[in-house]
Amino acid sequence: MTGKPNRLVILGSSVTALAVARNAADLGMRPIVFDRGRDIATSTWRAEVRAFPGADSASLLEELLKAGMEAPACLIATSDAWLRFVAEHRDALQRPFAEVLQPTTSTLAICLDKTAFAAWCTEQKLPTPRCFDANRIARDSEMLPFPLLLRPQQTSHSPQVTIPKALEVHDRAELMHWMETFKAAAVTPLVTESLLGRRLTQYSVGAARRGNALMTFVAAKRRPLPEQCAVGSYVELSPDKAVELLARRALEALDYKGIAEVEILRDEDSQQDYLIEINARPWVQYGLGPASGHDLLAFLLDPNGYDARNAVTVGKRWLNFSADLYVCFSASTGLVRKGRIPLGAYVSSLLRANTFAYFSSSDPRPALRMLVQLARDISGTRSQ
Fold this sequence. Notes:
Blueprint: E1 7-11, H1 15-26, E2 30-35, E3 48-51, H2 57-70, E4 73-77, H3 80-88, H4 90-94, E5 99-100, H5 105-111, H6 114-123, E6 131-132, H7 137-140, E7 148-152, E8 167-169, H8 172-184, E9 189-193, E10 200-210, E11 213-223, E12 234-237, H9 241-254, E13 258-267, E14 272-279, H10 288-291, H11 296-301, E15 317-319, H12 321-329, H13 343-352, E16 355-356, H14 365-383
Parallel strand pairs: 1-2, 1-4, 2-3, 4-5, 15-16
Antiparallel strand pairs: 6-9, 7-8, 7-9, 10-11, 10-13, 11-12, 12-15, 13-14
């Protein structure tokens, strides 16, 4: 294939895909949102949308190969499910596309499997929560240092899988109950020591690496709180040299290629940093990068030509309004509703937000769709 790629095929239509599509359009590329369903990114005016409801993998691959042959194009995945699709069909996809903007299949195998990732961290002597062999849990349970944290070995967003993203267990009976629950759902758990009872700060390191060129920036997830084990809804730039160095060390040890988010937890009492996960793709708060002058996509496409003189490390705060509203006011765990965050502090944080998951003055329709859905959800809740 010849010619400089001027199109970007984006696998997925989530809020992450929306941020990537807007980023690509700002770079003068022609983004194409490609997915089975029609999530929020299919509302954008700034990308072509190709949705194939109900299509099987073979049909999706055929459509992708057609898209890759139309003109020079790059391909990028925005979810773990799509990463697995890319890994499975990589040989076929590499033929029509100018470039597949993901790490190697062996790197994906490490990043997409939490047990493999924990083992790799141990081999590399990277700090990570202590891990326990799930096959020996029943035999060793009397000696385990409770509380423990259980997480699915592989992340799944399927509505058929009802296992929590993460849960803490405090004794043997609770552990055995959840081990059986995981087994019944055909989900393998990763069992580690729990950090949730400590004073924690959640860090998110955005990164792009091509060859030996690496760009990173650090943000802190302010909401939800660490013990809620949920996706960030309010995130702000928060430079930290130790956190950034740990993330860079991990990416270089992997010989990583592509865009990533490195998740790190800090125990504020011991000042120990723990490497939790590497998301081998753009992530929900991806928009913080372009907003702060850390344009990961532009850097990945041309690191030598990238100008980082306008990059800032403080002052940008990203908000997912609908998710944050739930985090702060839900009946179950609402932080403001339960008095864990003062109402005044919540309002102040909203006023300081300047980067948004949905809102864009040049692309208003996704925000309008989100507000309509939010109104329906609130109305439905009140009517129950």
